[in-house]
Amino acid sequence: DVKVTQSSRYLVKRTGEKVFLECVQDMDHENMFWYRQDPGLGLRLIYFSYDVKMKEKGDIPEGYSVSREKKERFSLILESASTNQTSMYLCASSLSAHGGTGELFFGEGSRLTVL
Amino acid sequence: GEDVEQSLFLSVREGDSSVINCTYTDSSSTYLYWYKQEPGAGLQLLTYIFSNMDMKQDQRLTVLLNKKDKHLSLRIADTQTGDSAIYFCAGASSNDYKLSFGAGTTVTVRA
Fold first, then answer.
1. Please, are residues A97 and A50 in contact by the beta-carbon 8 Å criterion?
2. pLDDT in tens, A82-114
C-alpha cells in the first residue's frame, strides 16, 4: 500500500522558533510537494521538488525553505516561525515527471500552531 | 498557472444526488481532477478527466467537462453519509509538475 508519512500530526511552536516538518514516501516517486491548507483558500503550493537536491518555488515560498537530500524524504523548514504560518501542512508525492495522470498521494497533514 | 474556483458549501439530503461545480481559467489544462478529504485525513484522488473527454463515469461518480465554458462538475448519485467531506477540484497542464487546487467544497449529508 502506498504511503506518505508526515512525522508530526500536531505541533505547537513559539514565534521565532525554527520548525522542521518531515515527509517520507515509500513509493520511489520523483516528485514531492509541500502545500499549506487554510479554510476558504484551499491548498497553496509552497515548494516542490522533482529530483534529489532539486527544488522549485511554488506560489507562496516566502518564509519557508526545503531540503531534499534523499529521494524519499522532503523536509519543510520554517527558519523563524510566525503566527501567520499557523496552518495545516500537507506533503504529497507523485510518480510522473510530466503530469501523466497527475495523481498526488498525500500524507495526513501536520497541523502547526505558532503562538 | 491555473486559477480554480468552486463554491464553499453544499448541503444534501441522504439518497439525493450531489453536484459540485468548479471553474478554471487555463484553457491549456490537460488534466482535471477531483480529490476528497475526509475529516482529519489527507486528500485522496477520486477521479480525473482528460481535456479531450466530455464525460467520465465511475460507479456513483459522474464528471462532466465543458471546455468552452471551462466548467467542471462532479455528480455523486445516491449520496451517503460517508460522502460528507471536502471535495477539491484541481487542474494541471501537460508540462507542469504541479496541480492548482480550488478552495474546496464542504459537502454535508443530512439524514
1. yes
2. 999 999 999 999 886 554 566 889 999 999 999
